[in-house]
């Protein structure tokens, strides 16, 4: 045998086992290494810092709830901006570190760290602000926004505001060498497999060829159909991005975000090039509410950027084989995304795309299932 | 946020949650990629192949139980060697692939694949042979031998034999550049942390220094105290290995293997060198039983080797700082290994070593806790 340590993975049934979810998901956030990675993301940090300190009127004398406080930084900032009380909820043992950080930064009279799942926590009062950094890859991976919605419905005053207040998912057509590289990896891996089948028959008298189809499927999924993390260069965009989902954080329900489906058109704006992938990313904005707007709006975008890349990067969905496209061609795209049956924090994405040439001719639509793991 | 997918990790309490265990452990074995890695290990494959086919008298007309059949190869061999019936038990969906393999190799009349945990499975009869490849890193990682013991006590006839029949754990003193490299990684990581603390204070008004101690501990554990997988060259051994545990697979109980403790002496047999680590590995032997011995004994060793390295390699426990040693010095070592409280398939190892110089002088003993993850 000899298996690598705890590799996560599917559970037997569709319902959520809290212990399994903890083992698979929350544990990652119990490492300071991972916290440091997020705290070193300048785009992320600047956005939240500016959102709080340029809109102090939302915090001065107010009660704040930080959902998933991690190291506690958003709670410290909320207190420094003048909050009367901050409840900082954290499911992992990181709560101990948050407590230490809050004490070391002299805001322990304002911030109360509560270790527990948001859904299990009891607060002594309703809150004016919910602040949370809940966004996963392509916005919804991790399904953490569910807990923020839960917190909002249970604990936010009717006049309360959400930080961030709005979120959007984007998709764009891109060119990239990643797909060629992954196709090469896939082919090498299949070639290894065929040698292995021959060797096993020759040396040990067992014919493994019956597993070739399953091996191919496993590796196609791994190399070609699982979205890739990448920080794309803006010059890799070969057409305008489209918004595939808009979320009002004050109004959205879990039903609104459980499944995402959108039809949209992506115009190609580059001469004779290759569509080798679709890229997905998100932005969030801090706008307060209509009744209670911010003084200065702040945006956090994870779009391809030269100077402002984030730890989220973009999710890249490879197109095999790449499609020759030209300026004024159009891609008609249908996207649907739902949660993986095996792990509700991962996503299955169906993408169907049809190329309409500038001549008016339409190519046959291509449908591919992708996995955000 | 943005966490990598399912990373396994600790659970809240000490008892074993079967669903968590499945998510953390078994899922790995549901990938053909991982099966191929094991099936490509020639040392492993040759040992089991020879053990079966050079001792056909143990299989001809007999009933065999294969615990954790994986792809099914040991079950196929058992059938090819003449077994009357083979029960091949597998906890993961790999059972489907095993069934296909067994059919493709025309042994479906003999081999019955049963999907389920060994502890939950009901067989229609007792068996003459239990065959299993249950060994993890440093033999006992994964704690899979528990299931083999359970199967033996419940299903093996009194006259039955175990394949393998014996196992041993070994430790040796080694020289290696790995420790310097890891110490360098650790120091780089701490230096990054100090920059991060300064930057966070300067840019965002939050003092993170209170977390420095915890960050250091987390990273010491990761870089310096977690045993490393390595295939050592035999010339890296600087003294004779010692046996720290012997297991008779026919007699051992779970109590016998739950905790391992041993005191032993390691003589240095190389002139002026450095003790930079201890290496741990195992071997297993196929000897049958006293009443029912094999015709030809086979050994599978994972010791450092030039031509016969295995996918298990050796586990390397780093010594910081390295110790200057000389020929005829002796290391007096006490080792104790127990299961991790957070995950019973991982191990905590305490190593205390005291150098006795050839002059008779003794250096102060050093005690270090290591983790096999």
Report on this structure.
Two copies of one chain form a homodimer. By secondary structure, chain A is of the alpha/beta class. Chain A has three domains: 22-165, 3-Layer(aba) Sandwich (Rossmann fold), CATH 3.40.50.150; 169-175 and 228-372, Hnrnp arginine n-methyltransferase1 (Distorted Sandwich), CATH 2.70.160.11; 178-225, no CATH class. Helix content of chain A is 28%, strand content 32%. Chain A contains nine helices and 15 strands. The first copy, chain A, has helices at residues 18-24, 32-39, 42-53, 73-80, 94-104, 145-155, 178-204, 212-225, 254-258; strands at residues 63-67, 85-90, 111-115, 127-131, 156-163, 166-174, 228-230, 242-248, 260-267, 273-288, 293-301, 314-325, 330-339, 347-356, 366-372. In chain A, strands 6, 7, 8, 10, 11 and 12 form a six-stranded antiparallel beta sheet that branches. A five-stranded parallel beta sheet of chain A has the order 3-2-1-4-5, sandwiched between helices. In chain A, helix 7 (178-204) runs antiparallel to helix 8 (212-225). The longest helix of chain A is centred in the middle third of the chain and has 27 residues, at 178-204. Chain A is globular. Mean pLDDT of chain A is 93; it is low at 5-14. At the A-B interface, helix 1, helix 2, helix 3, helix 4 and helix 5 of A face helix 1, helix 2, helix 3, helix 4 and helix 5 of B. Chains A, B: This is Protein arginine N-methyltransferase PRMT10. Chains A, B: Residues 184-356 form the Protein arginine N-methyltransferase domain. Chains A, B: Keywords: Methyltransferase, S-adenosyl-L-methionine, Transferase.
